[in-house]
Amino acid sequence: MSFAHSYYFAFAEIEYKPTEKRIEATLTASIHEMEDVFKSKKLVKKHLEGMSHSKENLKKIEAELGADFYLVLNGEKVLLKLLDFECTLEGKINFYLYRDEIVLPKEASFLVFKTLMKAYENQQNKASLIIGDHRQTIVFLKNSEKQKINL
Amino acid sequence: MRNRANIFYSLIVLCVSGTSLWAQNKFAQLDMELPTPNSYRNASGGPGHAYYQQQADYKMDIRIDDKTQRLSGEEVITYRNNSPDRLEFLWLQLDQNLFKPDSDSKLIRVERMEDFRSIKSLTRRNFEYDGGFKVESVEETSGRAMKYFINKTMMRIDPVKPLEPGQSISFKIKWWYHINDRSKVGGRSGLEYFEEDKNYLYTIAQFFPRMCVYNDVEGWQNKQFLGAGEFALPFGDYEVKITVPEDHIVGATGELQNASQVLSSQQRDRMKQAMNSDQPVMIVTQAEAEENEKEQSTGNKTWVFKAKNVRDFAFASSRKFIWDAQGVDIGSKRVLAMSYFPKEGNPLWERYSTKLVAHTIKTYSKYTIDYPYPVAISVHTNRIGMEYPMICFNGGRPEKDGTYSEGTKYGMWGVIIHEVGHNFFPMIINSDERQWTWMDEGLNTFVQYLTEQEWERDYPSRRGPARYIVDYMKGDPNNIAPIMTNSESLFQFGNNAYGKPATALNILRETVMGRELFDYAFKTYCERWKFKHPTPADFFRTMEEASAVDLDWFWRGWFFTTDHVDIALSSVKHYQLNTHNPEVEKAFQKKQDDEQVPFIKTERNKKDIPQTVNERDANIDDFYAKRDVYEVDALDKKEYEEFKKKLSAEELELLNKNQHYYEVSFENIGGLVMPLIVKANFADGSQETIRIPAEIWRKRHDQVSKVFVFDQEVVSLELDPLLETADTDLSNNYWPTRSIPSRFELFNERRNYENPMQRQKRLQE
Ligand SMILES: [Zn+2]
Predict the structure, then answer these.
(1) What mean pLDDT comes out for the span A125-136?
(2) Do A26 and B498 touch (CB under 8 A)?
């Protein structure tokens, strides 16, 4: 069998550049899984591949992604900005996100990553954090949607 | 920093520690994990001398009522007990009971109130639909009722007397059920309703009570159907009569027996043409299908199909069907590749489907076994892809305006190759899907990848290449399950049962075994187990036995653990041999000393102290101060001549070669042991790649070193340069260290370039 949407897995590569105080992230998911959710929210009619990259659309997608994928720094929710998105022929969609003027507090930096978890019972996500030479890979499950970033 | 090594002490210092238990485990044979070989399944991975399998033959009469969308049927099953065991009862599968309102698959679904925040999601949650089997009777062929008991998706039948070894039993079952609307309740099979022309398209499977597998491994495989783990079915011969509205076109497992009654003479002529054609020939054109859609006649027609040695039966029926076919040569046989699709599938389907079917069975035949059946069929449904013997249901639907995205095209190509490919795994090489999803999905996804690459150069395959599994495998292994996990306990089916095993096989083929050895062993497995029931151990053992490659470490790491690949190139030390030739060595020493970074005080003192005492007073410098340490004197030369006399001609040649020795250390961070593929780049632009088998890790699993000898000096070293091992962290794969751009950075770079369409526009201006 092969369901178009059988990944149930989203991945984020997040790089923090301390000198620039900038976060750059790439959120990757299956086009079909994302498309189903975007369709149910009326963000897209047909296919994500055909969706225009207009400022208006990017704003809407940014808000949608921001509901499930954000930082919590010193107890405050910090959203990322959507630069653009890209569909690959291998069936994946990449969302490119960033945020400037960010300082990650040592003991109080958290990441929430529950993208697609409401839509799919078996959804599990993973994030790979890069801060200089330091690397951390964190798993996000239905009962652990918020995880601490080790600095 | 370069070091000078004396030839008379050993260059290679491998860190050999005692036998740590951990290291022992990585390369230990899989004795504990695999079942002990026996007379049914032997130690080489083949069927043993006492191997047996049961046979289940079916004669069915099926009717679809298009008005009520009900399927009713009667079947006579003849079950032959080829086992050495006496069977007190028989087990059958009632998969359609998944659609009963009280099915376990619904009850065991974990829910939280926050999952139902909208009215729509609650409506879906509370949607009640009874699509379960209504079994009306179970009788002996004489008409006498038989005792039976239904336990959810399983039915037990109790024969009056136990079925002895070698005996057969025939019995008759009558049943009906509501055909599920796939757009409302999902399902691998069901119906699709087309609002515009008010017609149904039926893709029908799991529609009859089917015998469970009874074998030497599990006895009765009567694990309940919960939705994920698919089917385990015995082989048999089928004769099926399908009664549908007279304007329907039916495609099914097997060969049509009554073409003269159900097809027009024109359609029969076209079939003959198609058989001899290497390009698709239309049996029912789109114009004819559109005419057909309008009629909605009330009469019925019965189509008769026969299929030999299949493990299941499925069919599709609709008055909307366009139908095309072509012949394809497989070995000495000619097979008919066919497609059935509504106009909604065009223009994609007419252009590609049948050609893809033909290409798939041809390519799979090359890597596995010759496709043994007379027909291979692809039927168009919306979204899902699902496989049955000789026939499969595939998604890939263009927009209403006839356009389609590139993604839809590749999605359709991929799903057709995948589902047609399932004819080989598990329809013919009949593994137990309910127990091991990877045995059919993983192996099939692997050959799908090979088939896609032969369809289009650099085809963007979704699964197979090592680099696509990296995100899934890296990091915390606690929440992923090993491949060797029962189907129902798997998370992330897509990665675990499809992607990871397909990647593992790719790595075996390209990196560990090589194509020739792998292909031979893989084909051996397929030949040994075609029309039989293999288990994981049979696969593992055959691959080793046919290749003489010990793969236990590989199966252990990739299939029994959740370790990942992260090997780091942790340090590099450069050595050159001490030639003892004073001309060479003293010059070398001078160069090294000259290159030393001066202390800060030396620099400053040059300025602050214009003249030192010994620079002023010629009587201060003595012998030591005056001698030139880099000068080669007669004694040096004499000693060198004496040294040379002690060496053999070979030793002397080696000494004068001026080779470069690199002691490279590797660290295993991820846990999976893998071959080391090291590429050296030299100053003149040339390169050399060295491949070291994974067994280098056998004594110590966390750290190893290796000395490489080159004629030239190395500029840089790369570990896994072609990304073939699924290494999850590339930032530690280079010497000197290289920073790996993030995906965001790569995108940003790409984004600043002109895109192909912008370029085209400029070209036209
Ligand atoms: Zn499949």
Answers:
(1) 89
(2) no
Beta strands B249-252 and B315-318 are: antiparallel
In a domain, B754, yes or no: no
pLDDT, tens digit, 9 for 90 and up, residues A74-99: 999 999 999 999 999 888 999 999 99
DSSP state of B181: B
Which residues in chain B have Cβ-Cβ distances shorter than 8 Å to A6?
493-494, 498
Q: What is the ipTM of this complex?
A: 0.89
Q: In what order do the strands lie in the sheet with B333-341?
A: B281-284, B322-330, B333-341, B375-380, B391-394, B386-388
**B453 phi/psi in degrees, rounded to 5:** -70, -20
- Classify residue B505 by burial, with Cβ atoms within 10 Å: 0-12, 13-18, 19+: buried
More confident residue, B325 or B575: B325
Counted domains in chain B: 3
Q: How far apart are CA A74 and CA B666, in angstroms?
A: 40
What's the gap between Cα B476 and its chain centre? Answer: 22
Q: Which residue of A has its CA nearest to B189?
A: A1
Mean pLDDT across B528-550: 97
Q: Which amino acid is at B481?
A: A
Closest CA to B229 of B411, B56, B105, B395: B105
Domain edge (last residue) among B496, B524, B559: B559
Structure tokens, B416: 């057709």
Say if residue B580 is in the same domain as residue B668.
Answer: yes
Determine the pLDDT at residue B98. Answer: 83
Q: With cut-offs at 50, 70 and 90, classify the pLDDT of residue A5.
A: very low
Tokens 């504990």: give the residue.
Answer: B32
Query: Domain range for residue B706?
Result: 567-744
Question: How would you classify the pairing of strands B386-388 and B168-178?
Answer: unpaired
Considering only CB atoms, A7 lies closest to which of B230, B408, B494, namely B494
Tell whether B43 and B67 lie within a shared domain: no
CA B131 to mean position of chain CA atoms: 33
Tell me whether residue B271 is in a domain: no
Which residue, chain included where needed, has tokens 């000393």? B593
Residue B124's pLDDT is: 61
CA separation, residue B34 to residues B42, B46, B69, B596, B735 (Å): 12, 14, 47, 60, 41
Is the Cβ–Cβ distance between B219 and B168 less than 8 Å? no
Which contiguous run of DSSP H or E holds residue B650? helix B649-656
Q: In the structure, what pLDDT confidence band is assigned to residue B131 with cuts at 50, 70 and 90? A: confident
More confident residue, B356 or A121: B356
Contacts of B467 in chain A (CB under 8 A): none
C-alpha dist (Å) from residue A66 to A62, A78, B637:
6, 9, 77
Q: What average pLDDT is seen over chain B?
A: 90
Q: Is residue B518 part of a domain?
A: yes
Task: For residue A2, give the nearest of B410, B418, B745 by CB distance.
Answer: B418
Q: At residue B500, what are phi and psi to the nearest 5 degrees?
A: -65, -50
- Spacing of C-alpha B667 from chain mean position: 28
Residue B289 contacts residue B322 (beta carbons within 8 Å): yes
ω into B347 cis (within 30 of 0): yes
**Closest to B91 (Cα-Cα) out of B155, B185, B186:** B155
**What would the pLDDT profile of B237-248 be if each residue is shown by its tens digit?**
999 999 999 999
Beta-carbon separation of A3 and B472 below 8 A: no
Helix pair angle (A31-40, A55-66), 10° resolution: 100
CA distance, residue B477 to nearest chain A CA (Å): 9
What b-and-e string marks burial along B27-36, b requiring 16 or more CB atoms within 10 Å of the CB?
beebeebbee
| CATH code (residue B193) | 2.60.40.1730
Stated pTM of the model? 0.88
Q: B71 - beta bridge partners?
A: B64, B177
- Please give the average per-residue pLDDT across B341-369, as a whole number: 97
Report d(CA B129, CA B236) in Å as an integer: 33
Q: Which of B273, B64, B324 is nearest to B177 (CA)?
A: B64
